[in-house]
Write a structure and sequence with these properties.
Blueprint (H helix, E strand, L loop, with lengths): L17 H16 L6 H8 L3 H8 L2 H8 L6 H9 L6 H14 L4 H13 L12 H11 L4 H21 L3 H5 L2 H17 L16 H4 L11
Helix pairs in contact: 1-2, 1-4, 1-7, 2-3, 5-6, 5-8, 6-7, 6-11, 8-9, 9-11
């Protein structure tokens, strides 16, 4: 749902408590509107309940936001899922994992908050889960040949761009793309960032490889006047 659209009609799971349902609705609101754009009324409207019910469970907007931002993700399980298989396809599995978290109604809200809050409200970000960076860090430490921190940062940037475009900015092309196509294309880039060769530390700052200047043809000498 685009942030400017009216509240989407959503219904809780039959086994879900009203309190937990309101937390998940708040997470969806935060991921789409940002913390400043969320109110008890907007959450109540999206959940299709009276605002007094939201106040009954949480008392204030601040209390509800604190619960919504207390995101619980099992990092061990996520890392294990990405590493399950050959290292040659860890890039695809990583992208498939992220898309699955964003598409599954059970994990979508907290996953999108995990990506959106650090970008819009960094003071509320939780460094232990923000943008799934710790997951990518641990994957890099297992499969990457070197420079684990840099590789994890590159993967984080790549995956964050995908999540932002497809789920938060709602780019029409990315939103309409088949998941398997995104897994194949973006997974190839993530694979390269995790296991492919990186430029040597001695590379020139302008992107020219060290030694390239020496290999280039020398300029011709003065042309003799006729």
């Amino acid at each position: 749902m685009h942030p400017d659209e009216t509240a989407q009609h959503e219904t809780p799971s039959p086994v879900q408590s009203t309190r937990q349902w309101l937390i998940e609705v708040a997470q969806r609101e935060i991921s789409e509107r940002g913390l400043a754009g969320v109110s008890l009324r907007s959450i109540a409207a999206r959940a299709e309940v009276d605002p007094s019910l939201v106040r009954h469970y949480f008392g204030s907007k601040q209390t509800l936001l604190e619960h919504a931002l207390n995101i619980s993700l099992d990092l061990d399980d996520l890392v294990a899922e990405a590493l399950r298989g050959t290292p040659a396809k860890v890039g695809r599995r990583t992208v498939k994992l992220v898309l699955g978290l964003c598409d599954d109604p059970r994990t979508a809200a907290r996953t999108l908050v995990n990506f959106s809050v650090p970008l819009g409200d960094p003071e509320y970000a939780r460094p232990d889960t923000a943008c799934l960076r710790p997951v990518f860090q641990r994957i890099a430490e297992r499969v990457a040949p070197d420079r684990h921190d840099l590789r994890a940062a590159l993967v984080t940037a790549q995956v964050t761009a995908l999540v932002m475009g497809r789920y938060l900015v709602h780019d029409p092309v990315l939103a309409a793309a088949a998941p398997q196509d995104l897994v194949r294309v973006v997974g190839r880039a993530v694979q390269e960032q995790l296991t492919g060769p990186l430029p040597d530390d001695g590379s020139a700052g302008d992107g020219t490889a060290a030694g390239e200047e020496a290999a280039a043809p020398k300029a011709a000498g003065p042309v003799a006047a006729h």
